[in-house]
Fold each of these.
Amino acid sequence: MKNLILFSLLCLSVECIAQVSGNNIYEKNSNYNHNTGNPVTKLTDNIPQAQWIDERTVMLEVNALSNQTASSYTAIFNMKQLGQTSEEADRIFNERFDAFVNQLIAAGVKREDIYLDLVSFVPVYEFEEEKKLFSKKTFNEIPKGFEIQQNVHIRYSDHRQLGKMMSAAAKNEIYDIVKVDYFVENSEEVYHDLRKRAVEYINKEITQFEILGLELDDTYRFATEEEKAAYPNERYVSYKAFSSQSLDGTSKGKINNADKALTHFYQKVAYDDFEIIVNPALLEPAVQFMYSLKVKFRLKQPEPKVEIKREKEFVWLTPNGELRTLKVENDDAPAAKPNNNGTVTIPDDK
């Protein structure tokens, strides 16, 4: 009875955790420091910290992200066919492919949106034992047949069509979907919108600096930018959700571990480092466009006070053709006047 109660409590605990954060916490738990039992990431690592470049330089940075649903998709299915002869392999492959195409068209896919890509057409070998009486066994490699491998590329615009395509593939013994590519037609407009939003954000920051009494020098300004996109097929991660119990006496016996299911899920780019987020609430996997803008400014320095002192110099040309400098203390000093004979009297101290 005690064991039954303990088991019930354990199930209840696991159920509560799943409702709050999901089973991917089992993957996060692997990031713990086994020596201390604490997470490797410190709590303070998530707190932003402002830093100066130097006493006169300010770097303003803004990161923007835009989530855009795909305007079209391309799914790739891999088909393989074996045959004892090349003709047989080719014939059976074409029969399966034609049946697959007909079912895709019935599901709403256009014939011009289906493309067949040849991957390989190679012979297949097997080993045959050479029978000998008094020597070691010898195995010879001999031709067994031929294998055709081709990929079927299917373009579609409605994501709900993928389920119908997978059903059609299964009916024709096609069980390998290689990948699904996402395409956004107006990517240039998306980046243009992010750039516009980022510039507006920077201008608001400049205004905030002026409120603080810090005036930026417009004559010195340096900017750099970067663009990037993350596609859904790059953002899937996996984990295994299970809890192993410790059993007494395991050191005396052998343990056969069961195979654990591997779960895959879409993990979007985290919003932590972005000041601007367009379409933040995601329902389906989307293409995530990212834009970063950095602008470096100089702070204005107080203008130095400049005192201008003007000095005047007068030169007198004597009747004898000599040049003599007349020293004038200030503008109010009386000017030298010539005598009646045309000469100018100059004091001895001048």
Note: The first strand starts at residue 57 and ends at 68.
Amino acid sequence: MTTCRFIPPYLVQQIASVQDDADLAHRGQSTLAIDEQLRRRRLIGPPRVEAVPGAASRDTGEDAWTIHTASNGTSLPGRPVRSAGEDKSGDVVVDEAYAGVVASLGLFRDEYGRSSYDDRGAPVVATVHYEQEYVNAFWDGRQLVFGDGDGKLFARFTKPVDVLAHEFTHAVTQHTSGFVYEGQPGALNESMSDVFSACVKQRLIGQSAAEADWLVGEGIFAPSVQGRALRSMSEPGTAYDDPKVGRDRQVAHLSDYVDTADDNGGVHINSGIPNRAFYLAATGIGGSSWEVTGRIWYAALTSGLGADADFAAFAEATVAAADETGVDSVREAVTNAWTEVGVEPGSRRSDAGRPSRPRRPRRRVAVRRSGGIAGMTTAGEVDLDTDPRSEEVRQLAERIDFASLAGSTDQPDRYVYAIDLEEEEFVVGEQALTPELSRLVSLVLDQPPR
């Protein structure tokens, strides 16, 4: 089971480390702590759905979904506020989430013949108004969850329809290829969500591939932020550049692949490579992105690739699907798209994509938080000899069984914590955070007293 977050961890970490705005840094740190706790939910079964919502049912073949509100708390799924077939609620966030679910289900049903995310008509559960000023959105392996944003850097996460479609597609990927959320497979997992969220957005407004802006999360940033969107599929690395949120770190070519221990091996950074390949293929083929090119990518996603497939394996699957169209120009466009981003379909897997784990023996405890839908990284360190936080940090570190918590970092768009204890480093997924580990992480990532 995977948990996927829209904001990459390195972006949230950047916000949490802002020096000249204590309130902003606190909100970033709070988001990181919440994300850690949520990772533990992956071990629990799906939320109970007492009845098929609204007029939809498995018997009629109609889609079923319910929008809930957490009422700015953390209890999931929360109180149901609007179900399939019901009139508008009057809450813009609820109604935006409703519209996003409709659009996402519609793409996969009408274009690819898929019944809900599991292809078995599973009711979709979505929760809005999660926590206070929560700056993220995620699929936790069971349901969709959306924060309201902080109003200072981020707007509400239901505002761009492709944010909801991005998280919904993580659910589809979980029930198809199941790409492991690390390295190249993890970057493919992220890319699938960007690809089909772009298809949802363009289909909804009736744009061709040539007409589209190819921005993911346009409108997610508040007006004060210097950025067009969270990602650009046509020009990875150019979506934003702002003093507080940093610069878009996505790469567009395999030669620039980032091999890192953060963000599950840079899944939000390196996804720019397959993202651009889809953009090139869609504009090369022409027409709408969701028809020919989208069907080729969907065929590859559902072709039985292994969960650890790399870029080259997925590229080969798309070329095979393009072959099935019987149109030479389509196959050529898909092949050329991958070649242009440095990926040769079917070539042998490179060493890129498996993060190294550095060891730095020092009397200190260090934490790096990465991942999240924005892929940002935040780091902090406590010197055990001089830092005023050292006594509590030392006591926590002695009590926590890090080895038993390590791993479980495979939930898309969730935060990942690399905890360096002098001579050993443990990588822990947000879902595995215990209250004591959450406190430790918060202490280390917080700015020391002045």
Note: Confidence is low (pLDDT under 50) at residues 38-61, 350-362.
Amino acid sequence: MNEFTPQRIRGLVEAAAGVAGQTDLSSLLRATVSTAIELTGAKYGAVGVLGEHGSLVDFIPMGMDEENIKQISHYPRGTGVLGTITRQAQTVRLDEIADHPDAVGFPDHHPGMHTFLGVPVRVGDRVFGNLYLTEKPGGFTEHDETIVELLAVTVGAAVATLRLQERLRRAALQEDRERIARDLHDSIIQDLFAIGLSLQTAIGHIDHDGETVRTRMSDAVDRLDTTIGALRRYIFDLRPPVWARPSLSAEIRRLVADLAEPYGIVVGVEIDCPPDTPEAPLTDHIVAVVKESVSNALRHAHAATIDVRVACDGDRVLVNIADDGSGFDADGEHGGLGLRNLARRVSAVGGEYVLDTAPGKGTVVTVWFPLT
């Protein structure tokens, strides 16, 4: 595994193609970490996504099971050696992490790590994030470094492609909306105006020609029915097509990153749903639950870790937001911090809402939405 054999080069090409073929950001990042681990023989891997100010806004680890991850006191915050990669935008390869002058140790219950390889992932001229690998028996080699750097180039290009696709979708959607607005003005509004004029004319005959009034009123009703039907079609057209909608995973990750960045907290996000599931308007309700719950945890709970999980399970969608913050009295005057309104929203669409919290305990919000 330490030489550029034909088999290893072929493996790199195939792996890079698999990564580049992902259609949403979450799948792309997970495929990146998994591929890097496989290509180098590392035990652990992760990718960290950087915000506008260079802090970690998302962190996707692999190699540890869920129980191990839950025991760790907090996700990395982009300091120490990880921060060095961000500041220098250069690869860092170490036989012993603790020997690096910027090392700051690990959070509580974090597994021990010694060998390390960290590579920046660039999108254009900007560093999008960093790819981290640790614990390769015997240490990482120059060949490992070269292969992971090549993989990072592929990932950067794939991220740029996904972003370009999203911008094109938005541009197409905006153009379509402008077309519909013109059609509404040129067709529907003018039809309604003409019907209004016809009714005004009919009013002038109401005292001496009832039959004419009845005929014109009947005609106006028929024309209104036709116009309302056309209006409904326009309203339906205003709904973005499936290809123009951002995936639920991309929308939640972008939302959480924007919310968390000012606080310097990495919010864990796990989305386990098919790319096109669920559809609007259910996605709006899911995003609202995540936004309210994460905002509360960031602003009021003083939490060190916040985890968001969305999973599609048969005919239901699970939304779970957990934090290790201060908690609160759910029955108190300020209990819920806006979550009561959220509970009513969930109930209105046939969902189930559970709030588990107490002072000093942290908070877990669990919501089930029906898929049908």
Note: The CA atoms of residues 11 and 39 lie 8 Å apart.
Amino acid sequence: MKIGIIGCGTISGAYFQGARKTDILEIKACADIRPEAAQAQAERHNCQAYSVDELLADPEIELVVNLTIPRAHVEVGLQVLEAGKHVYSEKPLGVDTESGKQLIDTAAEKGLRVGSAPDTFFGAGIQTSRQALDAGKIGRPIAGTAFMCGHGHESWHPNPAFYYDIGGGPMLDMGPYYVTALVNILGPVKRVAAVTTKAFEERIATSEAVRGLKIPVKITTHLAGTIEFQNGAIITMIMSFDMWRHSLPCIEIYGETGSMTVPDPNGFGGPVNVCPAGGNWEEEEIRFPNNARMIGVIDMVSAIGTGRPHRANGALAYHVLEVMCAFDKSSETGEHVVIESTTERPEPLPYGLAEWEID
């Protein structure tokens, strides 16, 4: 399948590299609102540099990978669908549920597919965690924790202002990795209760590229809440850009007969440890490949070819978006937020695959 990429920023390099690992797709062209960025990536990765309009008009391109900024994900995604092409978006699916639902509904009306990052749950870490839970190694899941905490991006990122604007913040930036991993392991969410805030109205950049830049904070930067899953498990979550240092784990799940540590869902690998009741931590055998970014697109192309559902699908991404948006909504209303959408857990990967292989 010939595909195109819209958005030639830093993350696009990982997608170009991943495309080299498979023969089921070919990146024919890339485009960016900055023509020089598209030209540079086209020369680097041996494809054509198009304008956005040219890429959308090319009848050979069947799927477009949308790597624009979050606020443009839905706008560009709708343009792709209107051009009669499938779309796979970087995370998050959108910045609010209303526009996210418009994207999903438009695709359904046109008989096209929506896919979305993150695809880190294809990696060995989350797949092994899912396998251990499904095998009953900790029994019925009862509770858990999920923490992504730091002090933001202004001390090191060359363009940190984006992370404090609409579409940024710890939840929409990093939450997709955590919530997607949890839904993959535990299933869909029932409701959310949360309190959210921001510690600073303004941030001062100390990274060399923009040292001294004053950054207005337009989003909440510390979100603490409880997620109740449809299976009854209760996960305590903190997503924060307001903590200098901490010693909290990424994800832990506590079951009826044991506990499990889940590796950082922002990566594809990492150890999984299980502790049976009354026992000690033991590392699980890893029987899945690590993979890397682009594996979700490869799975989507494969699924289109065979007619099966793809794993990093629009229903999953929309459900995750609704859960993330529920944190601020719950804080604003002082009430639990019932999650209206639902989704199926993606099919687990089978044992025995090599890296970049998809069943």
Note: The two ends are 17 Å apart (CA to CA).
